[in-house]
Amino acid sequence: MQRTRFGDLACSIARTLDVIGEPWSPLILRDIYVGINRFEQIQQELDISRKVLTERLKWLVENEVLQRHAYSERPPRYEYRLTAKGLELCDLLLVMVRWGDRWTSGEAGPPVLYRHHACGQVSHVQLRCSVCAEPMRATDVDVLPGPGAAPAVTRA
Amino acid sequence: MQRTRFGDLACSIARTLDVIGEPWSPLILRDIYVGINRFEQIQQELDISRKVLTERLKWLVENEVLQRHAYSERPPRYEYRLTAKGLELCDLLLVMVRWGDRWTSGEAGPPVLYRHHACGQVSHVQLRCSVCAEPMRATDVDVLPGPGAAPAVTRA
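YS: structure for the whole thing
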């Protein structure tokens, strides 16, 4: 099954995509991140089929990205909250925003602005090195095999 | 059609997902980023169907994420190169790596390491504010409507 396969690859990109690798999951995360966190609200906001939403929420809960909390007992109703793991996944959304604002917004400009708490300014994320704090982008790194790399294929 | 719909939403996340919103496209980008850039190479490396790979490459070229270059005239053969737009999309891969390494690597550790040119250290990306350079993560921002926001619905 495709889902299992991506998660089994020795690649952190593939494994991350195994959790959010289709358009709906990141948009569900986005909704929950901005406080749209009940099934009916998300379903209406995204105009997503109930079947697909149910399936995606279940998957995200199983992967500990979301937690389900009862907010009503009769009838039983639930809202979804981000776990620490899920909240860190929202960082990825901020990087999508930066790329999308730059390359897809056109003359209308960014649909949404992000005001940074620390400085109070509307800004964007920048990628910097966790060691030296200098800019660190895809062009600024060498790619090396890590400890969890797939074993090299031994040729006869 | 679903593809058109995501690109039409007033949301930079949805518009970005319209370009790379399924598992294959980011993995194709990853391959091209590390120099696996010919059709046959990518097809073998990812074990992807030729039909799907053809379709995804065409879409990424149409979206100006990739450019096609002939490397042989007889027979006609092409390789794919990242545009500036595509290279900036690879920044997103570095953020996926960070999340995937942290939450999906387990005891084996990261499959791949990234050595930063500026400091020579193996490290990870950190998200920082483009204005003040302090850390800027999903928990550090207020979300505001931007100039390209969808018009508010007027209720009768």
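YS: worth flagging: Chain A touches chain B through 84 residues (CB under 8 Å).
IM: good catch. Also Chain A is about 45% helix and 20% strand.
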